Amino acid sequence: MTNHPYYSMRKGSNPAKDGLTLNDLKKLFKQAYNSMDKNGYFDESFYAYEECYGDRKPKIPDVESDILLKIRKESLWPINKFIENYSEDDLFDIIEFLHIHVSKPINAVWDGYLEINCCDEFDKAEGQKEFREKINEILGAYIGKFELSKNGEILEKPKIGFEKIFKADIPSNDEKVRQRINSAIRLYRRHGATVDDRRHAVKDLIDVCERLRSKVKSILTKKDEQDLFNIANNFGIRHYNEIQKTDYDVNLWMRWMFYFYLATIHFCLRKIEHTKS
After folding, report:
1. Domain boundary at 156, 186, 217, which?
2. Which is it for strands 116-118 and 109-111: parallel, antiparallel or unpaired?
């Protein structure tokens, strides 16, 4: 279902036309979390009401301690108590934590006295799917451009026009190539990725080009091939010496190089497969 742009959004006069604030995002997240919590989506991991479950124990008997151990932060749980003080990082940490532990109750029975759903069977995959759908609808309205991936990671959304390249299959049977490309994509898109993270992601893609170099020579002209590796070798990505060109907007340049190398790799791999066939 598409998000219909209402009048003030189309006109450009809506005060939140560029996206909702962090406080708005926290408010919407709190509502979504409380709804799923009330309907038993966190019972398997966090709760085990004796009236419902008898002797069954929750998977995480002490959520606060588990969060301290895994996220290494205090004052995040319970959510309703601390959410007003959450930073963006705190909120995204909690979203990723909940994605790990959410599961949909199957054949739940509502207990009017306790005002909870009692259930002894859960579907984790379906619960995670529904959780992602709710969270991504909320993140879609946020001023920051993020999404919750199937792996449960908050990632930066692709730039407009590049969405398909992240979903495209990698046409290679070389597992090292596939792993290096996927690793570079996750590192580049990860929430809070630093300039060094993105430089490393670009270097990973250049390493893939290097691995494919002997085959690339039959696809690109000699000059194009030289330019491909000239960028890699002389703009502070793979080497660090006095001849490196570093007088440029790093964030803008890293973004351009990441998409340039990723698109080039996809093009070359497809040409290689086409040549084989």
Report:
1. 156
2. antiparallel
Which among 43, 56, 58 has a CA at the least distance from the CA of 116? Answer: 43
Same domain, 123 and 56: yes
**Are 224 and 263 members of one domain?**
yes
Q: Is residue 1 part of a domain?
A: no
Per-residue confidence of the chain (277 residues) as pLDDT tens digits?
456 778 777 767 777 777 899 999 999 999 999 999 988 899 889 976 555 655 667 889 899 999 999 999 999 999 999 999 999 999 999 999 999 999 999 877 776 666 666 777 899 999 999 999 999 999 999 998 899 999 999 998 887 777 788 888 888 888 999 999 999 999 999 888 888 898 899 989 989 988 888 887 777 777 777 777 777 666 656 555 555 555 556 678 888 889 988 988 998 888 887 776 6
232 lies in which domain range?
Answer: 163-276
Looking at the fold, whether 148 and 16 belong to one and the same domain comes out as yes
Helix (H) / strand (E) containing 231:
helix 222-234
DSSP tally for the chain: helices H, then strands E: 14, 6
**How much is the CA Rg of the chain, to the nearest whole Å?**
23
